[in-house]
Amino acid sequence: MNDGKDKIALSGKSLEEISKFVKELGLPNYRAKQIHSWIYSKYADSFEQMSDLSKETRDLLNERATVGLLKLAHLEVSNDGTRKYLFQLPDGKMVESVLMSFDDRPSLSACVSSQVGCAVGCTFCATGFLGFKRNLCAQEIVDQVMSIQRESGKRISNIVYMGQGEPLLNTEEVIESIHRIRDSVGIGQRHITVSTSGIIPGIDQLAKEELQITLALSLHAPDSDTRDEIVPINKKFPVPELIESLERYYNKTGRRITIEYVLLAGVTDDPDQAVQLAELVRNLHCNINLIPYNPTRAKDGAVLYERPSMESQRRFKQLAESSGKTVTIRLERGTDINAACGQLHNSFIESGK
Ligand code: SF4
To answer: What Å distances lie between residue 192 and 8, 78, 160, 311, CA to CA?
Structure first.
């Protein structure tokens, strides 16, 4: 992929792709390894920094290539240190990514987008309001991680595919990006989580690949009637079939699944629903992660749902624990800059790009 000015951007490419490019330039193959190392291990953002390349080689690279693919259009930093990035893609479209740090551990997590907009249309999600624009290619996904590392100067330890888009409606590119994140960026699959709204063919495809990533299912309701309302893809892939696909996934990979469940006051936080949830997942190898709703505005500015009280959150957690599973309430990051779950929607710019 080029940067829009007929130059080839190298960050986000695999070593094989960089080798092919280097060969086209008539350079020896060992140059590819040097360039790959400068980009992925030393976070170089220009060829000038690549001090073990000759001036002639650097000039040639400058003529024909760039390091970064994405352009940083805007950066917001939350009171809690969360950083939200707005990146411009080569075709001018925008995506958001988030860097999260935690007080109780040194690890840094990056939340990356896999599509521009999203077709699934979950009723509580700001990205769903944008509609679907296009899939990201593997290089665009990987360069979100590298752009964040270059900007922050910090090494990311965990990746979550929970930004804009449904990763399993872009499965091929997402899988390729996971391979590049392991091989080039150096983040192992056990530190990568792919979050899906429940696309059964995508779950089966991931299982077939036998990756060692964590699969997170955004369940959000234990019964199909409620789920049909808030996660419309449920009409195509209903709850019982979804649970069966998760069992297949576990049998194939041996990897415990994370069940994500958004708590919407008066919609998904009823004690009966907590009991139903416990029953539903009793025989599944999983953990449950409860996500108190982050207020999100629809296109007309209306706030559609409310966050349940702390009391209601605690009661729901207790009842869900009767499943025998570990149940956690997600720690909030970046809510003051709309970087929390369900809030990514290119708020810096006009939607409809
Ligand atoms: S929650 Fe995920 S799948 Fe649902 S609309 Fe938002 S981005 Fe798409």
So the answer is: 28, 24, 6, 32
Q: What is the pLDDT of residue 180?
A: 98
Residue 73's H or E segment, with its range, is strand 71-77
C-alpha of residue 128 to centroid of ligand 1, in Å: 6
Q: Helix or strand or coil: residue 5?
A: coil
Residue from 124, 127, 168, 304 to probe ligand 1 pocket by mutation (most atoms less than 8 Å from CB): 127
Please choose, from the candidates 169, 70, 73, the residue with its C-alpha nearest in 3D space to the C-alpha of residue 115.
169
Predicted confidence band of residue 4 (pLDDT cuts 50, 70, 90): very low
Tell me the CA–centroid distance for residue 164 and ligand 1, in Å.
Answer: 7
pLDDT score of 3? 46
The rounded distance, in Å, linking the Cα atoms of 41 and 133 is: 33
As given in the structure block, the two tokens for residue 131 are 């509609």
| For the CA of 197, the nearest atom of ligand 1 | 3
For residues 278, 281, 283, 285, the Cα torsion angle rounded to the nearest 10 degrees is: -120
What domains sit in the chain, N to C, each tagged with a CATH number? 8-66 (1.10.150.530), 71-337 (3.20.20.70)
Q: Is the CB of 128 under 6 A from ligand 1?
A: yes
Give the whole-number percent of the chain exceeding pLDDT 70: 91
67 in contact with ligand 1, CB cutoff 6 A: no
